[in-house]
Amino acid sequence: MNISITARKFKAHDTLKEFINGEVASLEKYIDNILNVDVILSYLNSKDSLKTAEIILQVPGQTLTAEEKSDDFKKSVSSSVEKLSRQLQKLKSKKISHKSGEIENLTPIDINTDTDIND
């Protein structure tokens, strides 16, 4: 899993980067084959100074995104990771239900027939 952290209009501290890496790594418990994760941090310099974290997660066949705004980057990242964890749980349950559906739809064949293949 490749984790890319982009900080727009500021330089992210190492402690924030380590926090992000830990949070994003926790998503691997839901699905093993995460290809890329892009984390984009930005802030709006208004009186409230809203801090935005956008996480773009790529798994084979799909791209999942989550964006959250709050007064702290750690809160924004944690909320975005929670959103992605719910999306990954839903994706995993869909894959499991599709696999079990495929198994149920198989029709059995009779292998005890006395037919000769060389006829």
CATH superfamily assignment? Ribosome hibernation promotion factor-like
Largest sheet, in brief, is: 4 strands, mixed
Could you give the count of β-strands?
4
The sequence of SSEs as H and E is EHEEEH
Work out the helicity level.
25-40%
Counted up, domains total 1
Count of helical regions? 2
Distance between the termini: 55 Å
What is the name of the CATH class?
Alpha Beta
Arrangement of strands in the largest sheet: 1-2-3-4
Briefly note the structural class of the backbone. Answer: alpha+beta
Strand content: 25-35%
- Oligomeric description of these chains: single chain
User: What's the rounded overall pLDDT mean?
Assistant: 85
CA-based gyration radius: 22 Å
Low-confidence stretches: none
- Broad shape: elongated
The CATH architecture can be given as 2-Layer Sandwich
The CATH topology assignment is Double Stranded RNA Binding Domain
